[in-house]
UniProtKB/TrEMBL annotation:
Residues 208-280 form the Histidine biosynthesis HisG C-terminal domain. GO terms for biological process: L-histidine biosynthetic process. This is ATP phosphoribosyltransferase. It comes from the Bacteria. Its cofactor is Mg(2+). SUPFAM superfamilies: GlnB-like, Periplasmic binding protein-like II. The lineage of its organism: Bacteria, Pseudomonadati, Bacteroidota, Sphingobacteriia, Sphingobacteriales. Pfam families: HisG, HisG_C. The gene is hisG. One of its GO terms (cellular component) is cytoplasm. Feedback inhibited by histidine. It comes from Arcticibacter tournemirensis. Gene3D superfamilies: 3.30.70.120, Periplasmic binding protein-like II. It is an enzyme of class 2 (transferase).
Length: 283
């Protein structure tokens, strides 16, 4: 039987979440830090552990069929791959940042200035689109210290919390791109049945992460008021309780409007609200 290969980051910011996602998809494999390749025992898949920079090209060239990598790395390497699924982790922004006392107020003020970055391809396109003629200084790491060393007037770097910028006296100034981890595949692999199966498993894990399972008790006469608040997957399950006139309602609600829903449910007469995480949702 054919075996697929999926490339994930060997170590770094995306490694742990990538491994967790694959394990939540029911895949059993050893996560040896020392090995480059790990077979999955219960699915025809092998996991390749690589530097994230190499993943897009490995996938484009078919050395790996699939890969998990940040969109920033895909755009920077300008590869031709299929985007299969956004994964909701590794979120960050590529931002332009300037020293606190820089005298730069608008993008146009970057004309004639130098910008240090590890993302010259993305930055060049952004500057062209905005009609800015600045000099790009490509450096592979510790970009944030370059203005302090007099190497550049500004930087373009990945930011998630902004803490690193702040501690280096830099202020974010413009967003170049937003990024998150995505599942990519070599062109054409989206038709492959094993890939389709894997994407479905990934989606069921992601859906479950975005929702909570809620059980609550309510007087039968108040049921109408809460049913409109709880669309559920189809509609809520309503079970009679031993106590006359009371029912238990089982449903799922989206994580994002969780707190506002809970207070609306309480206001509508819900009691004994129990909230549980969901492992998978298969539609
Ligand atoms: P590798 O050794 O695999 O080349 P790396 O040092 O290039 O790793 P990491 O710092 O581990 O990369 O980041 C991997 C990815 O995590 C980034 O490409 C980006 O998509 C995402 N990411 C999320 N938040 C941040 C952040 N604050 N800084 C950098 N990357 C971030
Ligand atoms: Mg890298």
């Amino acid at each position: 039987m054919k075996t697929l290969k999926i490339a994930i980051q060997k170590s770094g910011r995306l490694n742990e979440k990538s491994v967790e996602l694959l394990k939540n998809c029911g895949l059993s494999f050893e996560n040896y830090k020392s090995s480059l390749i790990s077979p999955v025992s219960n699915f025809p898949l092998e996991i390749l552990f690589l530097r994230d920079d190499d993943i897009p090209e490995y996938v484009q060239d078919g050395i790996a069929d699939l890969g998990i990598v940040g969109e920033n790395v895909i755009n920077e390497t300008e590869v031709e791959v299929a985007y299969l699924q956004k994964l909701g982790f590794g979120k960050c922004s590529l931002k332009l940042a300037i020293p606190n006392k820089g005298g730069i107020e608008a993008l146009a003020d970057l004309n004639g200035k130098s910008i240090a970055t590890s993302y010259p391809v993305i930055l060049r396109k952004f500057l062209e689109q905005n009609g800015v003629a600045a000099e790009i200084r490509t450096i592979s790491g510790s970009v944030e210290i370059s203005p302090g060393l007099g190497l550049s007037d500004a930087i373009c770097d990945l930011v998630s919390t902004g803490g690193t910028l702040k501690s280096n006296g830099l202020i974010p100034f413009a967003d170049v791109m937003h990024s998150e981890a995505v599942l990519i595949g070599r062109k054409g692999i989206e038709e492959d049945p094993l890939t389709i199966e894997l994407i479905q498993r990934v989606q069921s894990v992601l859906r479950a992460k975005e929702t909570k399972y809620v059980v609550l008790n309510i007087e039968q006469k108040n049921l109408g008021a809460i049913e409109s608040l709880l669309p559920g997957i189809k509609s809520p399950t309503v079970v009679p309780l031993a106590e006359e006139g009371w029912v238990a309602v089982h449903t799922v609600i989206p994580e994002k409007d969780f707190w506002s829903k809970i207070s609306q449910l309480k206001a509508a007469g819900a009691q004994g609200i129990v909230v549980m995480p969901i492992e998978k949702i298969i539609l």
